[in-house]
Amino acid sequence: MKRRVEVLFYGRAVYVYGPPQAQLDKLPGHIEISLNGAVMATIDLEIKYREAYDEPWNPLLMYRWEGGGGDASNHLQITLLDDATGFWPWFPIRGFGFDSVVYTSLEPWRPPKYLLSESEKLEDVTIHDTNFVTSFTPSYAWEKTVSAVASSQGIRTFHGTSNELAYNSQNLGVTPVAEFTAQCAALAVYGASTAQLAATFPAGFRHGHLQICQGRNCEFIDAHQVYLNVSEHLRHEPVLLYNTDRMSPWFVKTVSMRLLDPPSPVGHLWTMTLSHAVCSQVVPKSCVNGTLLENEHDANSWRD
Known about the structure:
- This protein is mainly beta and 304 residues long.
- The protein is 8% helix and 45% strand.
- A five-stranded mixed sheet has the order 19-15-22-10-25.
- β23 (287-288) and β24 (291-292) form a beta hairpin.
- The longest helix has 7 residues, at 45-51.
- The protein is globular and about 70 Å long.
- The chain starts with a strand and ends with a strand.
């Protein structure tokens, strides 16, 4: 029986990634890519990995399809063609790994941006990682850190996790989740600063791949790319991981952040941190003698 992976997606293009070369424990084999029942490509992964030898820690782009046209339901199938048992040394066992599939589609419908009336304004509320509305599960997979490195606003604390903390011999398959509730018109979520991370995690760590959701609306975040774009003069400031201005200010939403990276057979450390979030709430403007006051006042800060 052929070994295969099947993926259903709705979109107009797809990119199939295999695991980094450094994580392989079998010789790469030959795979067949089918889309909606039609064979699209036959790929020799050994050659493919050999061509990408200078990037052993990055997922390998095995196949891409950019069909164009409109969005549609598609059935992707990846099949291993090699069936050797490994009994004969000249026919070694070969395999293939599956890291992820990225597909593109038209931007989904989003609620419209809330328009302030003349009697309303936005007020920023900071939700720190130590706030009572914030939870971290499972608790053993998270560590609270009070860093010696402070931001320009004096922020020192953050909660951090890693695939090493989340996946051990007693707790396989656990996904670390940070979660809080908020009622906002706009939201920004921040991770620890690059200086704080460098002072906390051992050399060689990597920023993980994250899923951030507000309600049922979720986005994939490549935190490694986010941190690569941080300017040197901002290395002591919390890093913006996610922001949106399309939330309803009248409903309380549960916001969650998940680390998606599994354990690495070569001990590669993937990390995720939460420093704080900034929630922009709609509040009425002050009124004196029938006149609306425009003056700003200090934003609230929620802590436990």
